[in-house]
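Lab manual, section 2.4: Encoding a predicted structure.

Procedure: take the sequence of the chain (465 residues), apply the prediction step described in section 2.3, and record the output as structure tokens. A sample record is shown.
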Amino acid sequence: MNRITNNAFNTNNKDMKIYSYLLGILLMAGVLLSCERDYQAPPLTEPEYTGTEANMTIAKLKSLYATISDPTLIDVDYIIKATVTANDISGNIYKQLYIQDETGGINIGVDQNSIYTDFRVGQEIYLHLKGLYMIVYGEQLQIGYAATNANRIPWEVFNYYIFKNKWPLEENAKPKTIKLSELNDDMVNTLVKLENVYFPDGGKLPFSDTDATTNRTLKDGDGNSIIVRNSNYADFANNLLPEGGGTIVAVLSKFRADWQLYLRTADDCQNFGQPIPGETPTEPGEEVTVYYKESFGTKEITESVKPKIAEYTEFDNKDIEYSDASGVTDVRTTKTFNTPHLWFPAKKDAYLTIKKVDTSAGANEKLALQYELTANLFDAGSEMNLNAMTVIVDGKEMPVPDQTVSNANNDNNKVYTVTLTDIPAKKDLTIQFQAKASLNTFGLRLDNIAITTAPEEVIVIKPKN
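Recorded output:
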């Protein structure tokens, strides 16, 4: 009897535990459902700056520290109000934030990756400057810190000095449309737009080499050029440069005397695929056939001793022979002409001989030789004639007419296109360029040699458009 009672008690006790357990699950589920049903995300609050108003502009700040050479502490309560114009969203800009107000732009070195997640393009900010430093890098001023890696501001310190105001609006970061011929130091580190420009290596080369930051050349239709500097860590580094003409939006920078552009993203290359600026569109039936073309490559010449023709390996045509009997003509790039070209030094006999050019396919065509020539007329009062460059084709001296150029006429570094007709069509053509010491008084630059079908209208010497 007792055993039956105990068994009944044990059974009831077990049932009670099961019941209690199930009841607990139901209550917990109810609580969870109730919590899930009642949960609301905390509201996002638009950032609002309530501190002291701005009392300094970027242009004024630069003028105050224009003469510094070492990191200099800002010990005055300066406050700047500005807009973020560029960040590190693509990886092309590294640990930098570019800001701009109505007077100019400046970059801030910040020791942090993925700054873009906190500071979007178009974000209005107030930057308290007292306690930060003015830094000089590449002869340009920037805001940074002292005794840190690359003088960058530590992230925690940076967030102590900078304040957001309102939501970021990308349209607040408006680029200014400029021309390459109008660059000035007031534009340094500002967001700019360049229309009707093109990459000479469009469709041929990627934005960057795989192992290092790479300079690519951007040109306009007037022969002006500028460096586009691309990081091999950019998410568009492996993309081919766009073909044809188009528009670039970028941060305009300067390193010492070299103007540079920094793309923020691949989307800063806009509307490419248009006709290349400066080229005259051909009418139907007037297509030009190219039988030979030499641009001397695209690689920047960084060596202090420039390579002579016999040493140079970056010619476009590997099956053509290039030589210089004088041994003084070299290949170089400069700040103004940042793609390779030949330099014929002043007051020296200098040569270029090109052999094994095949124009035989143009036997039924009228052929023309074109090349670009520039006189180095840096000094006031300098003047010379472009026919100082003699051209001999297949043993015959070509008639190069007079074209006097001078510093007074703003011809220094002006590119002229020379067109010579009656070029033979043959298998093994030799072309010689000879600059005589007695005539080449200031130095000549030779570039972009081509043999093509002759245009209908031949203008022998004209400024390059």
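Check your result against the sample. The helical segments are 2-38, 58-64, 155-161.
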